[in-house]
Amino acid sequence: MKLPAFEYLRARSPEEAWQLHSEVEGDAVYLSGGHSVVPSMALRLQAPSRLIDISGIADLHGVVAQDNALRIGAMTRHAEVMDNPLVARHAPLLALAAPHVAHPAIRNRGTLGGNLALADPASEFPAAVLALRAEIEIIGPEGSRHVPADEFFLDLYETALAPGEILTAVHVPLPPASRVFAFDEIARRRGDYAMVGAAAQADLEKGMIVDASIAFFSVGFTPVRAKAAQAALIGAPLSRESVARAQASLAEDLDPPDDPGFPAHRRLQLARVLLGRVLNQMETRP
Amino acid sequence: MKVLVNTKVNGTPVQEAVTPRSSLADFLRDDLGLTGTHLGCEMGACGACLVLLDGAPVHACLVLAVQAEGGTVETVEGLTETGAVADLQENFHDRNALQCGYCTSGMLMSAQALLARNAAPSRDEIRDALSGNYCRCTGYEAIVDAIAATGRARAAATESAQAASANTEAAE
Amino acid sequence: MTLHIGQPQRRENARRHLAGRGRFVSDLALPRMLHAVFVRSPMAKGRILDIDTEAASLCPGVLRIFTAADLNPRCQPWVGTLDHFAGMQSPPMNILAEDEVLWAGHPVAMILAHSRAEAEDAADQVLVDIEDAEPVTGGAPVLLPGAPRANEAADSNLCYETLLETPDVDRAFAEAAHVVEAAFTFGRHTAVTLEPRAVVADYDPASGALTVHHGTQTPYQFQDVYARHFGLPEGKVRVIAPDVGGSFGMKLHVYNEEMGAVAASLILGRPVRYVADRLESFVSDIHARDHDVHGRMAVAADGTILAMEVDDLTRIGAVSAYPRTSAAEGNQVIRLMGAPYRMPDYRGKLSVAFQNKVQTSQYRAVGHPIACAVTEALVERAAEATGCDPFEIRARNLIADDAYPHVSATGYQFEKLSHQACLARLREMMDPDALRVEQAALRTRGIYRGFGIASFVEITNPGATFYGIGGARISAQDGAVVRMLPSGDIHCAISVTEQGQGTETIIAQVVADQLGVAPERVSVTTGDTATTPSGGANWACRGAGIGGETALRAGRQLRDRILTLAGALVQADPATLRLAGGAVVDAASGAPRIALEEIGRIATYRPDTLPHGVDHSLTVAHHFAPVGYPFDFTNGIQGSLVEVDTETGLVKLLKHWVVEDCGRIINPLLVDEQIRGGVVQGLGPAFFEECQYDVDGQLTNGSLADYLVPMAVEMPDIEIAHIETPTQDTILGAKGVGEAGTAAAGAAAMNAVNDALRPFGACLTQTPMTPLRILDALDAALKERTAP
């Protein structure tokens, strides 16, 4: 399980990164924490000729609360997502998701940007940014752009990132004080990829749900927004009945793969159980 | 093409030319002879290769040696020499919290990081901190016991030091 | 005298590991060493049409590429059968596949390069053209006449079959008030030692000597294997097993890759290193279990167990493992059934079938977990059928503690066991009445807890009837050389080996007590065929029982030598002297007569001052072979408390209890940790571990990200108690303990899960008990309840 040979180069700016990337058209990979690229190369699932280390680019670092959003730099490590007070305050779903991401030592190296750019459908953060209605900041030769999370995750390991583009940050809209959040997953062992997981937030006014945003992971090729379940909740109080309606409507939202080792109906069943638990956690949150 | 890496390993500056594909683990083991860092899965699942990079445990199999540029690496050999984990080692020994010894350096890294964050962790918190450390021999309980005992002793030592300094202040 | 035997002595060698100073084969680098990587068949079955190594041979750093034609002739093929398994067949095995590939992962070519990375680069460039054939991967139908064969060199897929029965078994079933039965499936799992298999073979053509640094538990066995299969004089073969990162039975089998490393070193005349990476481990280390068992139990109206009948189909690889075979596991399954119980009648049928998967063979607690789970699950059903509770039915049927010697229905002879005492002790520890109250209260809140118990026996201290009788060159005896150094310190070189279980520590304790010194003054050498006498080393739980007895007897001989010499020096009758506190003392008063140090000085440096004819040699060698019973059985009982989340199928292991009787306990600290580690190796396959194959014979979860080993968060705390019934076969009285935890942990847990699910009428009979299997069982029970 040794990595195939490659050329290692460090980029100090996005411009330098694109330049190095374009030199070996299609055969370069950006390296941040390396915790997906390195094992994948050790398994010889990929063998890029060049790794471009972008961890030294200043603009990819830092967590800053701006006017309307919290900007989390792509190089923010999972452990920092877990511990950063600004994240806890303004993007609590990321802070709640972080302890579920693999194990402590992985969280010390893995980066939020690397995680989102990989877009593993079984990973926690993509679903969390979806539920947070975050925007993904991307920079490329054509300039900088923001892509809503709903338009970022396109297919299995496929995102809105064009070749050579760099995911620079995540922008999470600052939440109103009344917003409630919950995150949970069903996993065989602590730190395993979940059998199914969910991130949810809701806005309550006088006990009524006025807005809900729910995303599932480990249910298909991308993280999935549960639109029908959201609709089933909006306009109702958080009650046994509304939760049951949301659970029932999940069949419209989720179309999990049917694997002989894990049939689709079971995953849907677990998703319903989990949705009930996540909504219950919201209810009991102070 | 080799790349020159400047790093500090166990307190000693190291400058070596490494092939980019060398993991930090291979670099430590093969180039520096620090074989106390072990390889169990080479994909970040078993925790046998944990070392401290800039003070935090990381998988030396998932970090490229070139990524340690400018960093500070501590391995079990270094932590032993400085005595930083002497109490953990003693409690592991007392409690027979190791058998074949292959997972042990990784366990020490996770334990040291946990106790630095949380001086008196519960058993559940200890088990959680070890969630990425595989041990085939012990069944984990003895390791949890050893870490808990170390935490208690460190907390008691801190408390008595604080009490002593409070007394001194009071006397002044 | 037992000053140190029985004490929780810490392991001296643990200090090295704690400091990162372990010396594992995977750490070893020798001058001119080459690194080996194997090209493996991607298919489970097929015919090799062509292997093109040209591009690979041009890769940087590559020194040599072997295929079967250049490598296999250097090594005598091996055959995994034993004579006492009548009718057993297994085709010969070579290092590299010659025509047929037999499993996905079967080595077809070997690359030697200057680094592992370069060898892997070259392996990617080898083009292997294999004509795909349909693999044999299924269950019972593979044994039907005319079924496609897994291995064309065998005349059918039946490797071995056997039948055990008592004359009255049919009558017992006919007359039973109740017959309970169930079909069980026990998944395939594997050892996953944290240090993978590792070997550095170093042939020196100048001296004709082969040194193999080998991460194994049985160095003498490999000295013999390498000598015979490579045509070398045994005296020219040295096997060194330094620190070994876990073995558990997996590292005593002959593997293609280790044989390949030796062959390559013989051909190239330089050291060859092979260390399996984790992906290779999954497709080349032996797997374990893989049984379908149908079991029935005949029970009288009062809950008395009358008989059992079982049919075990176990699926191995396309060849049987060497030299212990892949049939020993099934053989033990059918012989251990019902072993803790008085049950008089029995029928057990075993079929061992070839298939195109990695070979299975002995792994910790060979056969025990299967026999225990089947027996104990049927005992639970019998309890239900007769209205007994789990403790009551066992109290009624376990062999009484005063009823020994006892012969089991399968023919095992038990010297003396303590089942009833263990049961009573477990009852005190678990307090089942309180657990029942708690269970009922929690159920009203939708929380489903259950507990289960499982009695077991464990085979330890095997004699030569185990393998030797079948023609295998596997030693059941051990040897020790004990000597006093000039300083009065003691050294013991012994054939039992150390993989972290504490062998060296207990040997030091035993020797120390024979010679009246502190264990710190006894150094112990193990694991090197050049410096220790030949013996069985470590397998089937024999280190403490047989190794300990060997050390004890050798120590006593040295004691007698020392006393004789001391008698001459202090002019006393040796019979009036004994050893204590590092000195020869007066036996009656304890008054010191002469220090060991002084005896050592005179014997070594001034033998000229001794009276004429006094023997001053202070080295003794002694070998010990088990006598008396063919095995020293141990016994015990385990309890498990679980909580099942009936919505998700996840199981939380809340607590585990063990009461164990391994005879004389030499070191309670080490014994308890052997048990805990063993329990977790039993819980792993009960809930998590499973080698999953698709219909094409591809292992689909062969990495540590996908194969789920038990980890710290999911494992429970384990409370342990002991009953001590020493064997009278030896002076020491110790039996083995390494496999006890594994033997019954899964059985207790399965009973606990089923106890939790009882309100739903759901019942699991398959391991691992995964969330999906639990949900399936709940659905099936619901369907049954609601069926018209």
UniProtKB/TrEMBL annotation, chain A:
Keywords of the record: FAD, Flavoprotein, Oxidoreductase
PROSITE patterns given in the database record: FAD_PCMH (PS51387)
SMART domains listed in its UniProt record: CO_deh_flav_C (SM01092)
Xref: Pfam families: CO_deh_flav_C (PF03450), FAD_binding_5 (PF00941)
An MF annotation (GO) of this entry: FAD binding
Domain FAD-binding PCMH-type: 1-177
Transmembrane segments: none
Record-linked PANTHER family: XANTHINE DEHYDROGENASE SUBUNIT C-RELATED
Name the UniProt record assigns to this protein: Carbon-monoxide dehydrogenase medium subunit
Lineage of producing organism: Bacteria, Pseudomonadati, Pseudomonadota, Alphaproteobacteria, Rhodobacterales
Automatic annotation (TrEMBL), chain B:
Coiled coil: none
PANTHER family: OXIDOREDUCTASE WITH IRON-SULFUR SUBUNIT, XANTHINE DEHYDROGENASE IRON-SULFUR-BINDING SUBUNIT XDHC-RELATED
Domain named 2Fe-2S ferredoxin-type: residues: 1-79
Keyword Cell membrane recorded: no
Keyword vocabulary terms for this entry: 2Fe-2S, Iron, Iron-sulfur, Metal-binding, Oxidoreductase
Recorded superkingdom: Bacteria
GO terms for MF: 2 iron, 2 sulfur cluster binding; metal ion binding; oxidoreductase activity
Pfam families in UniProt: Fer2, Fer2_2
Highest classification ranks of the organism: Bacteria, Pseudomonadati, Pseudomonadota, Alphaproteobacteria, Rhodobacterales
Name the record gives this protein: Carbon-monoxide dehydrogenase small subunit
The keyword Iron is annotated on this UniProt entry: yes
Automatic annotation (TrEMBL), chain C:
SMART domains reported in the protein's UniProt record: Ald_Xan_dh_C
Molecular functions (GO terms): iron ion binding; oxidoreductase activity
KW Oxidoreductase (keyword) present: yes
The entry's keywords: Molybdenum, Oxidoreductase
Membrane-spanning intervals of the chain: none
SUPFAM superfamilies attached to this UniProt entry: CO dehydrogenase molybdoprotein N-domain-like, Molybdenum cofactor-binding domain
Pfam families attached to this UniProt entry: Ald_Xan_dh_C, MoCoBD_1, MoCoBD_2
Keyword presence, Oxidoreductase: yes
Aldehyde oxidase/xanthine dehydrogenase a/b hammerhead domain span: 19-134
InterPro entries, per database record: Ald_Oxase/Xan_DH_a/b (IPR000674), Ald_Oxase/Xan_DH_a/b_sf (IPR036856), Ald_Oxase/xanthine_DH-like (IPR016208), AldOxase/xan_DH_MoCoBD1 (IPR008274), AldOxase/xan_DH_MoCoBD2 (IPR046867), AldOxase/xan_DH_Mopterin-bd_sf (IPR037165)
Protein name (database record): Xanthine dehydrogenase, molybdenum binding subunit apoprotein
